[in-house]
Each structure stands twice: as C-alpha cells, then as structure tokens.
Amino acid sequence: MKVVIYPGSFDPITNGHLDIIKRVSKMCEHLIVSIIYNPNKSPLFTLEERARQVKGAVEDYPNVTVETFTGLLAEYAKQKHAVSIVKGLRAISDFEYEFQMALMNRKLCPDIETIFLMTSNEYSYLSSSIVKEVARFGGCIKGLVPENVRKEVINKFSN
Ligand code: COA
C-alpha cells in the first residue's frame, strides 16, 4: 500500500486544503492527512478539534485517513512507511520556505520524496489565517472552508 502524507496545521482546514486532498487521493492508495503541531504558531483549535473537523471534511474519500502528530515530520513519515510528503504551492512566495523544508526533510529521511501540487486558481489567495481574520471581524467565510468547519470557526469567535 503506497502511503502519502499531507501534513499541515489545518487551523482550520480550508477548501484549498480540501482541493489538494481530493486531487492527491486519486493518485495514491492511502493518503494520511496529518495534523502536525507547528511550534511557530498559536492555534485557534486544539489538535483534537482540528482532527474532528478534518475527519468530517474528508468522509467522502475512502482512502483518506486523519491523524495528529507532534514531532519531526520526517520521523513521522518514516514511521508510517510513507513514499512521499505532499505540499500545496499557492504562489512563488511559498516556494522558498517549502524548498528549504523539503531539502531538510530529504536530509533527515532521504527515501521520502516531497511532491508539490499547484493549488487551484480559485484558492490561491486562501490561508487558514486569512479565514480566521475575516471570521473574527464578522465577515462571510462561506465557500472558503468546509461547511462543518465554518460553523465551528464562527462559534469560536462569538464566544
Ligand atoms: N490552500 C489554502 N491554504 C493553504 C494551502 C492550500 N492549498 N496550502 C497551504 N496553505 C496555507 C496554510 O493554511 C497555512 O496558513 P496559515 O499560515 O495561515 O496557518 C500556510 O499556507 C502555510 O502552510 P504550511 O507551510 O503547510 O504550514 P503549516 O503550519 O500548515 O504546516 C508543518 C507546517 C506542520 C507541516 C511543518 O511546520 C512541520 O513539518 N512541522 C513539524 C516539525 C518539523 O518537522 N519541522 C520541519 C523540519 S524541516
């Protein structure tokens, strides 16, 4: 079984992430969406909340599972016997950072390839932070995140 990992903070998952999941799930046998603790960010949702949200969003994809992890991505990918790590590229500005991460992950685990997918045009401006910022000030986030997630984001800011 060829396992591919799609890692990220997913705080929260957006329709841009979902677009990548949908496309990659057609290219591999088993896709693990891995919600990974990023020490550089202060998340709005706990890892458990994010896992629940992502599970709800991917329930139509039978070969996609969802996990959480804290630690080094390369180690995790090795544990899972993954053949590759997939990342979405939205713009040239993503490239430098992603390139650095991919090379470091290759140094840590030479057998695992990082694959980049171009984000679909309609989501190229999206990020989890921009969704949270719009929701925080009462803006409409319909169509930007899966419906099960939209309600949770709105609730978080109305509390
Ligand atoms: N559609 C919409 N948004 C997208 C997207 C897409 N296709 N692809 C990326 N984004 C957004 C994300 O939502 C995120 O938004 P945010 O910054 O507002 O939260 C932003 O682009 C950056 O995404 P990404 O670079 O994937 O960061 P991340 O925080 O989601 O994930 C980890 C980074 C967790 C994968 C990374 O930090 C990691 O591997 N950590 C583990 C420790 C480790 O191994 N470190 C690396 C050593 S080389």
- Report the order of strands and helices: EHEHEHEHEHH
Radius of gyration: 15 Å
Count of discrete structural domains: 1
Summarize model confidence as the mean pLDDT. 96
What is the terminal separation in angstroms? 44 Å
**Secondary-structure content class:** alpha/beta
Our estimate of the beta-strand percent is: 15-25%
Q: What's the multimeric state?
A: single chain
* Broad CATH class: Alpha Beta
Shape: globular
Please describe the biggest sheet, giving its number of strands, its sense, and whether it closes into a barrel.
5 strands, parallel
Overall strand count:
5
Small molecules bound: coenzyme A
Spatial strand order of the main sheet: 3-2-1-4-5
Q: What do we call the CATH topology?
A: Rossmann fold
Count up the helices: 6
Question: Which parts are unreliable, with pLDDT below 50 for 5 consecutive residues or more?
Answer: none
Task: Give a nutshell description of this structure.
This protein has 159 residues and is α/β, with parallel strands linked by helices.
Features:
five-stranded parallel beta sheet, Rossmann fold, 6 helices, globular, 42% helix, 159 residues, binds coenzyme A, alpha/beta
Can you offer a commentary on this structure?
- This protein has 159 residues and is α/β, with parallel strands linked by helices.
- It has one domain: Rossmann fold (3-Layer(aba) Sandwich).
- The protein contains 6 helices and 5 strands, in the order βαβαβαβαβαα.
- Strands 3-2-1-4-5 form a 5-stranded parallel β-sheet, sandwiched between helices.
- It is globular and about 45 Å long.
- It binds coenzyme A.
- Coenzyme A is lined by residues 7-9, 11, 14, 16-17, 20, 36, 38, 41, 72-73, 88, 90, 101, 104-105, 119, 123, 126-129.
